[in-house]
Amino acid sequence: MPKKKIIAFAGSNSKQSINKKLVVLASEQLKNVDVTILDLNDFDLPLYGIDEEIENGYPEDAKRFNELLKDSDGILISLAEHNGAYTVAFKNIMDWASRIDGMVWKNKPMLLLSTSPGGRGGASVMELALGKFPFMGSDIIANFSLPFFNVNYSEQGITDKQMNIEFIKAINDFEKSL
């Protein structure tokens, strides 16, 4: 049986993204899958606008992102939060993808993560995604928010014992759904 293909990425274009660190850590826990870690910086997209779409059509990188999602068996995202919402980089790629296919997430199993240096762990952006993504074709299997990233994260895992149990459970639930 071929390995399942997972697309994993952070909803951030920061080169030092803590959400990328979290999504990589989560992807390393998965077994018997092929994980492709995407970086939003590798998708050169103009700021979405209807005038841009009418004048130039869909950018090749938007089409490529859409195809990567379509060809995957599951999606793992760690959402960064800017002012209580998605980052501009994530919102822009999601907007372009939604114009190609309104069911952006292709009804694929999804694990949603978020983290921040503060005590809410990206709770506001997580709430947005949990409310919006199902209308865009997501099958959210589990979600996990990690507060106080700089205290609770290490490259070996989540340092808080109870949070690590919740993190591993979310990953295992996602993996079982594949």
TrEMBL record:
- Domain NADPH-dependent FMN reductase-like span(s) in chain numbering: 5-137
Pfam hit, one: FMN_red
Q: What's the protein called, per UniProt?
A: NAD(P)H-dependent oxidoreductase
